[in-house]
């Protein structure tokens, strides 16, 4: 979600000025004149084995528009763009560019036709310079004039708001900066059409705002953008038209001004969406089960204290870099705390490793599911049961594959994970379905304390509904839940209380009846007193 417009309060603090949405960009055209399509895909079908991913899809792109593609994980959004960019070949169907039939056999063909693609994770060469990355594939390596190359690279960077030295190495640039370099590369190749697949997934709120403003600027210059995102605020802020996909089929294409966020969600999931909140009134809980007292890791976070009872959900809010994930990793023993106390069920415990945490029935579903949570080259069954692998072994130490399969299939069914079978590699799943496998892995340990770090990041609205239902169910079963989230609506609707952090400090603890977006955002900027 993009950053909230803010105004200065007393003592230089900032308070939320407008909460709950990204401001709609003024450059957006509310009404599109009827014109011939710049790019048209007709009757596109794509199958992977028996899995029909796209089913007779028609998609038209008009010159100078920002066209949003939205749908649940597995709806076929990324597959459609990969076909249009030449990464995949369609099983059947035709592609037309300015009225002429074209075949995109390879991304080089798409680039030659003036199409560029910005992926969720930047595809850059970190050991090359910025200039070399911008012009990779655009120049004859036998006739390089470095002075001209660097000058043109600087001009391309200025178009996207960067002022780096063109000779600087890519290594060390942030994800947002790398993405801007990719956009600069697209502009340098005179791309008419730019595909953006979840470009804001790893960006900070201010970086999101900057990217949306850049997209608006590119539209004004006549560029055509296809924009995939799960974030409805961004879709509504920046797009001219919105195409909704569901289960590999086009539900419809709509003018932005003529469809609401609720209507988009209903069309995505084929039913009315209900936010995942619990009852609005405060609940009464028993004695604290997890007690964290004055824990610190010098230079990372300091003097954090909280208590969570069985059946209680404590939300943890704050800006990126506030220290929320670091607190979770400290409690789980990945980066052990250096001072303070942790008590479980009234007994003080020392947690200096994840093994010690698991022994004390603590589970952590990490934010970085590929780096810390999953073995992406291994099957779903292996990943689901990995944390309980000892219980999968027979007397001679061999894995009971029937038991492994049965347990993993139960979680696939319960979480509605989209896959061919539990033998499918996790790396072949969509991001949302990978997250479900990560959840299953740790829920299978039957923990007393469950720490969820961004549990719905990269998950579409339908899958979120299922995760919310699961979190509520686990709380009702008596689990002690600590949930870190950057989505205010998620924090507000699910939490019994909310701890807020700012730059490694705990700046607020809000009871259920105190939880509002204004108070959370104020505490996240260390200005809670201003909002009282």
Explain how this protein is built.
Strand 3 and strand 4 (51-61) form a beta hairpin. This protein has 18 helices and 22 strands. The chain folds into three domains: 6-11 and 37-269, P-loop containing nucleotide triphosphate hydrolases (Rossmann fold, 3-Layer(aba) Sandwich), CATH 3.40.50.300; 287-361 and 447-532, P-loop containing nucleotide triphosphate hydrolases (Rossmann fold), CATH 3.40.50; 369-446, no CATH class. The protein is α/β, with parallel strands linked by helices and 532 residues long. The strands form five sheets. A six-stranded mixed sheet has the order 8-9-10-5-11-12, sandwiched between helices. A six-stranded mixed sheet has the order 18-19-20-15-21-22, sandwiched between helices. Helix 4 crosses helix 5. Residues 1-21, 29-34 and 275-280 have low confidence and may be disordered.
What is the CA-based Rg, rounded? Answer: 24 Å
> Which percent range describes the beta-strand content?
15-25%
Number of separate helices? 18
Number of β-strand runs: 22
What count of structural domains?
Answer: 3
Which sheet architecture does the biggest sheet show?
Answer: 6 strands, mixed
CATH topology of the largest domain: Rossmann fold
- The helix content is 25-40%
């Amino acid at each position: 979600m993009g950053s909230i417009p803010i105004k200065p309060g007393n003592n230089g603090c900032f308070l939320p000025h407008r909460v709950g949405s990204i401001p709609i960009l003024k450059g957006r055209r509310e009404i599109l004149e009827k014109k011939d399509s710049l790019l048209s895909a007709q009757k596109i079908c794509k199958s992977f084995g028996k899995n029909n991913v796209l089913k007779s899809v028609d998609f038209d792109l008009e010159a100078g528009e920002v066209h949003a593609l939205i749908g649940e994980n597995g709806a076929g959004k990324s597959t459609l763009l990969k076909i249009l960019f030449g990464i995949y070949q369609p099983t059947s169907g035709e592609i037309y560019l300015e009225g002429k039939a074209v075949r995109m056999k390879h991304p080089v063909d798409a680039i030659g036709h003036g199409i560029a693609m910005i992926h969720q994770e930047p595809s850059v060469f970190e050991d090359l310079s910025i200039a070399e990355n911008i012009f990779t594939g655009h120049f004859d390596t036998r006739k390089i004039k470095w002075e001209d190359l660097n000058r043109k690279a600087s001009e391309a960077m200025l178009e996207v708001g960067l002022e780096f030295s063109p000779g600087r190495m890519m290594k060390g640039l942030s994800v947002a900066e790398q993405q801007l370099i990719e956009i600069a590369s697209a502009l340098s190749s005179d791309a008419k059409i730019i595909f953006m697949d979840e470009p804001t997934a790893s960006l900070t709120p201010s970086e999101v705002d900057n990217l949306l403003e850049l997209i608006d600027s590119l539209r004004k210059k006549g560029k055509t953008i296809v924009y995939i995102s799960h974030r409805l605020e961004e879709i509504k802020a920046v797009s001219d038209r919105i195409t909704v996909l569901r289960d590999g089929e086009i539900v419809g294409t709509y003018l932005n001004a003529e469809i609401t966020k609720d209507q988009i969600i209903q069309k995505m999931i084929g039913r009315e969406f209900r936010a995942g909140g619990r009852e609005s009134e405060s609940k009464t809980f028993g004695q604290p089960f997890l007690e964290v007292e004055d824990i610190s890791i010098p230079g990372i976070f300091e003097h954090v204290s909280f208590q969570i009872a069985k059946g209680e959900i404590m939300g943890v809010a704050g800006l990126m870099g506030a220290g929320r994930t670091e607190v979770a990793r400290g409690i789980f023993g990945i980066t052990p705390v250096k001072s303070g106390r942790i008590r479980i069920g009234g007994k003080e415990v020392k947690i200096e490793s994840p093994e010690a945490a698991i022994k004390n029935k603590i589970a952590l579903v990490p934010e970085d599911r590929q780096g810390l949570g999953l073995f992406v080259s291994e099957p779903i069954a292996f990943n689901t049961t990995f944390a309980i692998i000892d219980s999968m072994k027979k007397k001679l130490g061999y894995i009971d594959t029937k038991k492994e399969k049965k347990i993993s299939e139960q979680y696939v069914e319960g979480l509605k994970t989209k896959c061919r079978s539990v033998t499918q590699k996790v790396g072949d799943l969509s991001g949302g379905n990978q997250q479900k496998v990560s959840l299953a892995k740790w829920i299978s340990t039957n923990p007393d304390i469950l720490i969820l770090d961004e549990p719905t990041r990269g998950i579409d609205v339908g899958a979120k509904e299922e995760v919310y239902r699961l979190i509520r169910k686990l709380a009702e079963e008596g689990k002690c839940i600590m949930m870190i989230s950057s989505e205010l609506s998620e924090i507000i609707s699910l939490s019994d209380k909310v701890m807020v952090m700012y730059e490694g400090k705990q700046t607020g603890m809000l009871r259920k009846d105190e939880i509002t977006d204004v108070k959370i955002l104020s505490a996240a900027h260390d200005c809670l007193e201003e909002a009282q």
